[in-house]
Amino acid sequence: MLKRAGLVFVGLLLANLVWAQASTDANPLSGVIDFHCHTGPDVTARAISDIEFAKLAKKEGMRGIVLKNHYFMTADRAQIAMQEVPGIEVFGGIVLNRSVGGINAEAVRRMAQFEGHRGKVVWLPTVDAENGFEHAAGPRQFVSVVKDGKPVPEMAEVFQVIAKNNLVFETGHSTPAESLILIPAAKAAGVKNIVVTHAMLLGATLDQMKQMAAMGAIIEFCFQPAGLPNAKDKGAIANYANVIKTIGADHVIIDSDLGQKNNPLPPDGLRAFIAALKSKGLSEHDIDLIARQNPAKLLGLDQSK
What we know:
By secondary structure, the chain is α/β, with parallel strands linked by helices. It has ten helices and ten strands. The chain has helices at about 1-25, 50-60, 75-85, 105-115, 155-165, 175-190, 205-215, 235-245, 265-280, 285-300, and strands spanning about 35, 65, 90-95, 120-125, 145, 150, 170, 195, 220, 250-255. α4 (about 105-115) runs parallel beside α5 (about 155-165) and α8 packs across α9 (about 265-280). It is globular.
């Protein structure tokens, strides 16, 4: 009787696995979490609003989205979107640019306290990063994160707030060299969830990404701009796939970084991204890890769903 029951259980388990495989084959966005997307209202025009995107993502079968804004926090907006569009997880965060006071632990603390607790991600400076990779040469104001080979003193309290509230620490537009200084400092402060924001776009080498992964960081790969028709590097997606295979899908997340006017909508970008990575040799298991399981773990969601 026990043997028969065991066989029945195994049979049901296999049936569920087959159903899950068929589901993701039929809809590659099923259960996917977009960890990096830009929605309106914003300082610059966006292609889609918070609530419009939540509705679209739910319709597409996605599990969740993370709203990113370079200038102000999105925890409150995520909570409103959750109320208006039940049935999908919506999270927000804060980017430590000059508009929120730079490396400002109090801004992070207050975000974590907001009703609904949808503020989960803390990005280091992006548009105001000292690393000016997306800025023209010339004088400008910026927010430093590393000085004399160490995190700036203000980072200590930010790390404490992130650790206490179990938030996700993202390196923003820090250089790879800065990220290699920041990651161990964050770990030493008790931060558990660390993401290197679009590492390859910022110039991280394979060896640097191996080091980051070995330190416990997750490496982010974004569809935008690598997958767009006007992408400068036509081989970027193939390079992404090779790096993911080398460092292992356990250490990676993928997302869209979309929402800009005249670009594809985030679900369309993610669908194309997944298809392109699979065409370059990533398995369905790899895709499940980088698009579903790893983002869910970072956000504290049940990974069995």
